[in-house]
Amino acid sequence: MTDSYVRVRGAREHNLRTVDVDIPRDALVAFTGVSGSGKSSLAFGTLYAEAQRRYFESVAPYARRLIHQVGAPKVEEVSGLPPAVALEQRRSAPSARSSVGTVTTLSNSLRMLFSRAGDYPDGAARLDSDAFSPNTAAGACPECHGLGRVHRVTEDSLVPDPALTIREGAVAAWPGAWQGKNLRDILATLGHDIDRPWRELPSAERDWILFTDEQPVVTVEPVREAGRIQRPYKGQYMSARRYVLHTFADSKSETLRTRVRGFLLTEPCPVCAGRRLRPEALAVTFAGHDIATLAARPLGALAALLAPTARRDDDGVAATLARDLVSRIEVLTELGLGYLAMDRPAPSLSAGELQRLRLATQLRSGLFGVVYVLDEPSAGLHPADTESLLAVLGRLKEAGNSLFVVEHDMDVVRSADWLVDVGPRAGEHGGRILHSGPVAGLADAAESATRRFLFDPAPPPERTPRTPTGTLALRGVTLHNLRGLDADFPLGVFTAVTGVSGSGKSTLVTRVLADAVRDHLGTAEEPAGPQDDGSAEDAADDRARIAAAEGLSAVDRLVRVDQKPIGRTPRSNLATYTGLFDAVRKVFAATDAARARGYTAGRFSFNVAAGRCETCQGEGFVAVELLFLPGTYAPCTACHGARYHPETLEITYRDRTVADVLAMTVDTAAEFLADVPAAARSLRTLREVGLGYLRLGQPATELSGGEAQRIKLATELQRTRRGHTLYLLDEPTTGLHPADTEVLLRQLHGLVDAGHTVVVVEHDMGVVAGADHVIDLGPGGGADGGRIVAAGTPGQVAAAPGSRTAPYLARAGVR
Ligand code: ADP
Ligand code: ADP
Ligand code: ZN
Ligand code: ZN
């Protein structure tokens, strides 16, 4: 007898209200509910966590203590649960060295093909497949060590202003403070004239100062300054080139490395021409191309090139390997990813693209009897691509697996075999199962927020598109797949940019438009938060060319609200990011008890030594090495997650400690801090963007991309704004239930009503239907895209021939 259900009894993780639920196996199960209702707490926090715990107990009994520390999910019993694989979007940042090829393991197969079936020059020995990887010593180009780029310095880059003397700082690349003076004094001791303008020094002398590899040691007579007498000392010279290259390669200080990066010119490696491999490896070809060339081809084109070999009716190595590659690429193409190339760095992919790559890779794993737990697999997908996503999910199911997906896209939800709707609202107002059964049964769940969107989506209200106040016109734009594109963005209105995955939407909006406005404003944009994504290094070879631009002067400010994390450690959280925590700390410092003890606001920061728990240094968590799982945190055993020194927690405000306040949700805190104006304003905007369910102390590492984006938006909304602001958002509805989307849209349209411009990249046809202007890119992805297929009001685009968006927009009820 086999019971074909996973049966959960007494689930209490996070906000779940002692939930009992039965979920069928070997089915596509959708979990729905508004943000914060408890979907992830059930799907990831309970089902996946429990499967993972059992797995670890079975394979690594010695890890039990650690598992105990990390904590088992709060659930009385789960029966019938198969092993689980999670394909989650949050917390799965790829490493800098990984690429589309490594994530999918397609690289291994292509290297094998070259090793075993490539065309070698006459007399050359066969190479091992490692020799085709730039990440191995056997394969890497010896000049650039497999990076494909070399860093160089020139006199111009090191000495930007040759009118200066050495004493005035002509060698700008040199370090500041003592070390810089030291080098200057060494030069003076060696007899160089440090008071002559740089350009007047003899060229041999200038070359030596900047480029020599000699490192003479001399006894330095320090140059006297402001009458201070210094003793002679021994100093060693280092040329500016040596200093810059060494610091860039070896310094542990990110600040120093960033500083010297400014003096480096980055160029393709002269030996491998950016192809990253040894000459011997590059000499091997397949179908007339070297491996680097094939890795740079879009996957779709690569499959076409391999097809003749794959079709060959033999079971030789070449045919077998080519068949394998082609069939794996087909799945990726089906998921709308055929425009990606194998050498594309994984960090430049969106979360949705990455999840679909991993999904496709799973199809090949041959696993069966597994539960795949997925987080909004439709994120980043045009409705046209969603159909193929469903087909791929269907194949995983046919192979004997179960699919549990947290989803907001009603098209995906409608095609599920089973629906678990959690709610009715967020946090403590949610956490109940409103429906668990076939999709149609949701019709009887009166409390469900999902029901209205699933069964009778209201047609968008009839509205007259706003009239633009001007136009921002870009001409001859070239970047990625945009080739000499002309694009007009109307100002003072809400514009939606649409198109299939890879058509160029993000490139046009978050790169080209953002760069053009930023360059015009001449200042760094005001990011809604810190945004060091380490991409600066690549910026030089990845910048847009824009032949002409008009209308830029109407824009006074640029704000990009993206989905990057608001912080990478549990030290940053919602309260610190929004500035709300400053107000909270002041409230505590102002209590009589705190004043009596001399506690200032700083004492109530978990980042300051005096007030925090010393065991975990205010993190509330300690990192544990749990087998091969990176970055697992367990609650601190000293403060149990409270983060503070016990004495700090003796101070209360209205009977609550500062740790209690951090544990409150935004909704609760809004009531508790209603008469603290600075806090109340932040809290109000957070609720307005639908984040009332988040806890103030929720670590940045636990927030989804969509949540991070809404926190940034709220932070921006609470600012007082002047002038005309251009807001750019990339798929702001990711992670949002349609009910939450309504709330968000009200905010965005409010910004337009206040005279600003909003441009969103969007797939949700409800959002597009409500825009004033639509720019549809396409027609396909990659080289098949990059053109404007249609532009105009939603009604005009819905009627445009040749647009893949049009039918879906028309279906959304646009007139
Ligand atoms: P959903 O997936 O429906 O958006 P979640 O399951 O993520 O909702 O969250 C449900 C509730 O649990 C929310 O109130 C959220 O603030 C809370 N929550 C989520 N993660 C944690 C956590 N790690 N610790 C405590 N509470 C959490
Ligand atoms: P969309 O936003 O419509 O999904 P993108 O703008 O992300 O499309 O991509 C358009 C094209 O540009 C695709 O062919 C993609 O592979 C390419 N592309 C995007 N980002 C990069 C990058 N950082 N490096 C190289 N190519 C890129
Ligand atoms: Zn090289
Ligand atoms: Zn602690």
Automatic annotation (TrEMBL):
InterPro entries: AAA+_ATPase, ABC_transporter-like_ATP-bd, ABC_transporter-like_CS, P-loop_NTPase, UvrA_DNA-bd. Coiled coil: none annotated. Transmembrane segments: none annotated. It is found in: Cytoplasm. It comes from the Bacteria. The keyword Transcription regulation does not apply. The keyword Zinc-finger applies. Residues 467-810 form the ABC transporter domain. Its main location: cytoplasm. Belongs to the ABC transporter superfamily. UvrA family. PANTHER family: UVRA PROTEIN, UVRABC SYSTEM PROTEIN A. This is UvrABC system protein A. The lineage of its organism: Bacteria, Bacillati, Actinomycetota, Actinomycetes, Kitasatosporales.
